[in-house]
Amino acid sequence: MTAVLQAQALGKKYGKRWALRECTIDIPAGHVVGLVGPNGAGKTTLLKLACGQLEPTAGAITVLGGRPGSTPAQLAKVGFVAQDTPVYAGLTVAEHLRLGAQLNPRWDEAMARERIARLGLDPAHRAGKLSGGQRAQLALTLGLAKRPELLILDEPVASLDPLARREFLQGLMEATVEHQFSVVLSSHLVSDLERVCDFLIVLVDSRVEVAGEVDRLLATHHRLTGPRRDPDRLPAGQQVISARHTDRQSTYVVRTDGPIHDPAWTVSRLSLEDLVLAHMEKRTAEDRRVALEVQR
Question: Where does the record place the ABC transporter domain (predicted)?
Fold first, then answer.
């Protein structure tokens, strides 16, 4: 099966600043991918590279086997909903659907109309008069009715209230089950990603910190709590992701493929949010260590 997205040493530079660098990932088709990271980590840059809105400064990226945005056929395979769920305030709902039909050769008119009716959106209402949740649902309808093989969503629920977020994500999941396409969804809200995503990418400081199937990542990350112990006394197969110490106790988050037999440790599983935060702390600690070495 063709990978939905492959990047090799991908980088994008604005002036002297790298917005994304050394990004190497391979996402199999058929997943709902959560892309998470702090502000300025490179999430939007990666998504814009994936849909052809930006050209790489370094490395290479392919989406569904082709160069992003290179041909009309390639453009037709990818749907994109930007962070501000863009719609035209002066156009009615019906006019948005007509515009979608004109711009997209694979447009599914029946699906668009059925979804608008199910959402209770009046086709005669102008988008500028809709609520934030309704505008987000209209933008999602336009992306879905394009019938893409890959749908890219950049922070689509960031400004929505909890009910509107839940309804948006529920609609997205129903559509992925029914129409069998891949999704890449960026968000600051890890709880939302935990609800819908089965593949995770964590970007920190413009680099990929960790990527993989959610079940596999959760199965190989553990929290160890026990008597204070230096990290160099841990087994070689246990990669330390984060560490906290008191005078008497150490708490580690480690990544390992093997079982943990040491009876001194209390071993517990992580939530997806725990895992994400541990990797963010790891990168922050490494950057702080490098900065201190440079100062010396």
Answer: 5-230
User: pLDDT digit string (tens) for 66-79?
Assistant: 999 999 999 999 99
Please give the C-alpha separations between residue 42 and each of 13, 37, 103, 163, 286, in angstroms, as whole numbers: 11, 8, 29, 28, 18
Same domain flag for 178 and 256: no
- What is each CA distance from 33 to 60, 100, 183, 199, in whole angstroms? 20, 25, 6, 5
Which residue, chain included where needed, has tokens 């993989």?
Answer: 212
Nearest of 69, 4, 75 to residue 33 by alpha carbon:
4
Which of 179, 204, 229 is the C-terminal boundary of a domain?
A: 204
pTM: 0.88
Distance between CA atoms of residues 140 and 213, nearest Å: 25
Euclidean distance between CA atoms 51 and 44, whole angstroms: 11
Residue range of the domain that includes 255: 219-295
Domain total of the chain: 2
- Tell me if 259 is assigned to some domain: yes
Question: Cα torsion at 280, 284, 285, 286 (round to 10°)?
Answer: 100
> Both 101 and 141 in a single domain?
yes
Largest CA distance in the chain: 68
Give one word for 31, left, alpha or beta, with left for phi > 0 and alpha for psi -120 to 50: beta
Residue 210: inside a domain? no
Q: For the segment 144-188, what is each residue's pLDDT rounded down to a tens digit?
A: 999 999 999 999 888 788 898 899 999 999 999 998 999 999 988
* Domain identity same for 60 and 131: yes
